[in-house]
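Predicting holo structure, 2-acetamido-2-deoxy-beta-D-glucopyranose bound.
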Amino acid sequence: MGNNGCSALVLLYSFVFSLQLLHISNGDVSYSIPEEMKRGSVIGNIAKDLGLDVGKLSARKARVDSEANREQYCNINLINGDLIVAERIDREALCGEKVSCILRFELILESPLELHRISLQIQDTNDNTPVFPKEEIKIEMSELAVKGVRFRVNEAHDLDIGQNAVQSYILQTNNHLVLEIQSKSDGGKFAELVLDKELDREEQQEFRVLLTALDGGTPQRSGTAIVHVIVLDANDNAPVFSQAVYKATLPENSPVDNVVVTVTATDADDGLNGQVTYELSRISEKGRQVFTLNHITGEIKLTGPLDFEEESTYEMRIEAKDGYGLSSDSKVIIDITDVNDNPPVINLKSLTKPIPENISPGTEVGIINVQDRDSENNRQVRCYIQQNVPFKLVPSIKNYYSLVTTGQLDRELVSGYNITITATDEGSPPLSSSKVVQLSVADVNDNPPVFEEQSYSAYVTENNKPGSTLCSVTARDPDWRQNGTVIYSLLPGDVNGAPVSSYLSVNGDTGVLHAVRSFDYEQFRSFKVHVMARDNGSPPLSGNVTVSVFITDVNDNSPQILYPAPEGNSFMTELVPKAAHGGSLVSKVIAVDADSGQNAWLSYDIVKSTDPGLFSIGLHSGEIMTQRDISESDSMKQNLIVAVKDNGQPSLSVTCSMFLLISDNLAEVPELKDMSNDESNSKLTSYLIIALVSVSTFFLTFIIVILGVRFCRRRKPRLLFDGAVAIPSAYLPPNYAEVDGTGTLRSTYNYDAYLTTGSRTSDFKFVRSYNDNTLPADQTLRKSPTDFADVFGELEGSPEVGH
Ligand SMILES: *[C@@H]1O[C@H](CO)[C@@H](O)[C@H](O)[C@H]1NC(C)=O
Ligand SMILES: *[C@@H]1O[C@H](CO)[C@@H](O)[C@H](O)[C@H]1NC(C)=O
Ligand SMILES: *[C@@H]1O[C@H](CO)[C@@H](O)[C@H](O)[C@H]1NC(C)=O
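Done. Tokens:
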């Protein structure tokens, strides 16, 4: 590099002119720059020269890559697309004597992978001075030497090339010698000293003149040596090499101590004058480390390791000298041949990490570069990955491969891959290497939570405590972290008109359902809610499930007697005809129980009676019948106390009194007033009794007529009021509402079916009570509601099932 102000100016000048773009073709670009440019100097705008979008350089991870582990001499500025100098570029260190010094780089862009070759031609600057091999050049001349005799002087060497190399020599003016410059075949110039005036040893034994070597650079640089001329007495011959150039070829990694080549020079003189010794006159520093010369024999031996990849050829000069110091030189060129000693190197240039599981097949997820430092076939590399992974290597540009997906990824199945990339070269034997690339698959919220069961059922006994646990639901979501975190909630809805949240709550984290209030089986027996499971992804995914809650009955209701009306409210009496025979139906106790099943299965029992032998009650029908014919001796007033008991555990019971009057005619009842012993004997009461008795008499008659008709039609002898009794609707408890059961409960749960005539204004409802399993198989209990429809059809139109 220039060392004064003028040279800096010249450098700038040459810089401006040399920065022309050499050529762009096929995505390749060349620049020519002088060596030794400052770090950060702009070489050119590569983005512009290649027509790249400057704005996308950064996103496309544009970078400059040097071939084979060489130093990175230049870089790209991602902001403006300038190619800049990154390291000191010393042409002499990089290329030595080579005339053309070209550095090659690659500009790599990703997505899609794009590769441009950059060649950087390094121009020489005159930054080296010519140097003579020795500071003093000894020349021995015979005093008999005639005018015109030539003496060769070893050339001065300048590391620069071309014009910047040695161009001329200047010899200090003297009496005997003149200078003549000779060009060598390789372009070098050396000086020859020509004797211009004969020497006379007696006059002058020795003398010194200054020899200057000049290069052709601007500014010019020079080096000097002293030519020391010694005038000799005798006439000697210089040694002569057997060859002008010795050549040898050696494979790299050859064993040391091998003789590579032997040089020989002969000298025509006898004795000491003919003894030739050899000396290495010029050799590179590297060469000095691996070759030695035997001074006596001229054998050149290998003493260090040879690496073709570092240096493929060595050149040295050998000087042969005889006893007088007369010398000549020769050149030795040793070529190193390549051996396949470098396995391919796999470089991971880029990798998408992690890979989202939803990327489409065929997406590039990584870029791999393979290099082999060997030459020719030894550097031809094949690259492949193992089977059974959804990835493949697609050869891209030059030594680049794209790693591409071949199928759909699913993190829930495989969350990561270890891919082994193997590269094998074509040397013999081939070398290969492999690299494991770890790929992880990133989660995408692609799985909604799924409940473990299709539906859930919860059973809870009524009168539960608020807050009690009903059941728990579980949904699974195989996604990762928040994408797989499940949160439970109730879907809005209503149960019997009230929001579902007033009945149930669900624990958002655990999915456990709690009752918010106490349930009453008599109000409703089951309901459905929808529980939603949602994950925490964005957007979230959800699933829902139906939870059916079944409330089971507890025996918490006593039987309720509808007929006769409870004691104390009113006072009822049944008339029993005197002529009644044994087995006649005289009345019926009608009771209901708001509970279900066993809890509502009622049994009737006469606990106390005026004449224990006279009346009996159907255990389950509540029908009061005469056990024998009525006789004259029987008391006219009969009083029964009937207990009605349900079958719950424990059972609940109530009692009622029934008054029976054995008489054909109300007129025969003078002591009617006395019937209610402790009751008020008011006139009103008497009227009431009379009214009721007549109503019930009419009622009985009416029934008997209908049954008679039916009996005649169907000849079903026992169709009494086993299963159905018509009672005035006024007797039904006002809140006695029917709630849906479900099919699954049909066989074990009891139904109370109300048969209503189509119109709401109807005065009659039909109560039917049975249990498929627990009641004795009395056919009449299995009558369908339509049977009743037949019976009452003529009167009230067709009934429907109030269910
Ligand atoms: C990949 O290799 C690493 C380290 O050897 C190991 O920890 C990891 O579990 C492997 N992954 C798979 C998917 O095999
Ligand atoms: C969840 O999925 C989304 C895409 O749906 C993704 O961006 C996010 O990284 C995922 N979260 C985790 C923790 O993997
Ligand atoms: C509940 O899930 C069903 C399918 O399982 C879906 O059609 C419905 O939209 C979901 N309801 C809600 C409120 O998410």
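The two ends are 109 Å apart (CA to CA).
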